[in-house]
Amino acid sequence: MEIISFNMSNFSEWEKGVVNRNRHLFYKLLASPEVKRIVAVDFLPFTFKRALRNYGQNVIRRLKLKDQKLKSKTIYQDLTTRCVEVKGFSAELYIFSTIESIFSHKRVIQKLNRVLDKINSQSPSTQSPSIRVPRLVWSCFPMFKEHFQLKADLFVFDAVDNWLSHPSFKKQEEILKNNYQVISQKSDLIFTVSDNLIEFFKEQGRKENLFWVSNGVDYHHFNKIKPSLPSDLTSLKRPIIGYLGIIQQRIDINLLEYLAQNNPDKSFVLVGPLWPVYFRKLRRPAVEIKRLRQYKNIYFLGKKEYNQTPAYLNNFDVAFCPHILNEFVRSTNSLKILEYLASGVPIVTTPSSGVERFSHLVNIAEDYESFNKKINQVLSEDNLEKRQARKEKAQENDWENKIKEIIKIINKNIRT
User: Fold this and answer.
1) What is the crossing angle of helices 253-262 and 368-381, to 10°?
2) SS3 for 261?
3) Distances in Å between the alpha carbon of 356 and those of 79, 249, 380, 405?
4) Which H or E element spans position 186?
5) What's the pTM?
6) Residue 127 banded pLDDT, cuts 50, 70, 90
7) Which DSSP symbol is given to 204?
8) CA-to-CA distance for 82 and 99, rounded, in angstroms?
């Protein structure tokens, strides 16, 4: 199987530590024995600011690979586009980066077809006329619908969340509305992360081949037996109530303040970067973040590398998820809860999409007072048996099981 993947991130970003559903499924597909080749299309910029960033990082600059066993070679380059072959995986891998999407979506497809022809002419897996490799076009990028112009045996769309509800894409609302309608009509298979997105596509007129495949977790990454204590946690007062993830619009600032005021004996630790849009779009939250910094028991530790995150999570006394329940959050499926479960630590969260599946293992709080009570409750009631049960549930949801489910559906539906 050959896969052309339209991604919501750049491959270079994944190499720098950005981790999301797109990245997890991509690498699982790359490792699958059924996949012979992946052509990864980096995030297609739709603003000049993002185009300049992509141009500098992916078109001009040479791709930097973390794994020294991997080697890269440019097979195509012009003023706006670059394609790199990455050798060292079991399957062939090509990274296609372009800023043509700023000027013309049609030209993106023209350039991509040109590169695909070049790949086919030199690849051993497609040189023999007796060998027919089925082509799957996979997209999780709703800002681009022209991928349907490619020749393919199956078109798959993976709905990671509903971009119409994301505050970062307000200016693209009309484009997204139109694109989602086309995606709903033309995709052979649609995977979603939540029941809410199932209903969203049904409202678009989609009636079949619509599958809910929830997020998974890299279980072995987060299930650490004796992680070292990070230096920036050593001086903090116990217990540590910790959050791991991006600090953005869905964080309930008022809830954080309430918890800090009512628990001066506890340390509330947020590990993750502050999302820039948080300040640029809403303005007021920048002041609210400053307001939180006045509390001596709230700590913002900033962005950490992916390989560092288990050490933080496994040293929390309680992992918490203080999210506002809005339309965007309803369309998501929290990776965070599964990562928390994999570590075994007790969890307190506000209601969010999909969390009810773990209600026997996760403490769900409907209001501020309940949230506060549940934190104190789990601190007194936690034990090894409960920690093991959380870990076992996370292991059931490992990404390896998710990709098996997805490939089974693909094989049943692909035209050969």
Assistant:
1) 50
2) helix
3) 50, 22, 23, 21
4) helix 173-186
5) 0.89
6) low
7) T
8) 10
Q: Where are the alpha helices (DSSP H) in 245-326?
A: 253-262, 277-280, 284-292, 309-313
Domain spanning 2-216+398-413, CATH architecture: 3-Layer(aba) Sandwich (3.40)
Q: For residues 95 and 115, what is the distance between their CA atoms, to the nearest angstrom? A: 11
In which band, very low, low, confident or very high, does the pLDDT at 278 lie, cut at 50, 70 and 90?
Answer: very low
- How many CA atoms are closer than 13 Å to the CA of 323, on its beta-carbon side? 27
Give the chain's length: 416
Cis omega (within 30 of 0) for bond into 239: yes
pLDDT tens sequence across 363-416:
999 999 999 999 999 999 999 999 999 999 999 999 999 999 999 999 999 876
CA distances 274 to 45, 248, 258, 302, Å, are 22, 6, 20, 7
What is the full DSSP assignment across 351-371? --TTGGGGTTTSEE-SSHHHH
Stated as kind and residue range, the H or E segment containing 132 is: none
Contacts of 15 (CB under 8 A, 6+ apart): 63, 64, 65, 66
Give the span between the Cα atoms of 280 and 292, in whole angstroms.
18
Phi–psi pair at 135, nearest 5 degrees: -110, 130
The third-level CATH classification (topology) of the domain covering 219-396 is Rossmann fold (3.40.50)
Sign of CA dihedral 215, 35, 5, 12: positive
Q: How far apart are CA 211 and CA 223, in angstroms?
A: 29
CATH 3.40.50.2000 placement within the chain: 2-216+398-413, 219-396
Mean pLDDT across 298-305 = 92
Give Cα separations from 151 to 113, 155, 158 (angstroms). 9, 10, 19
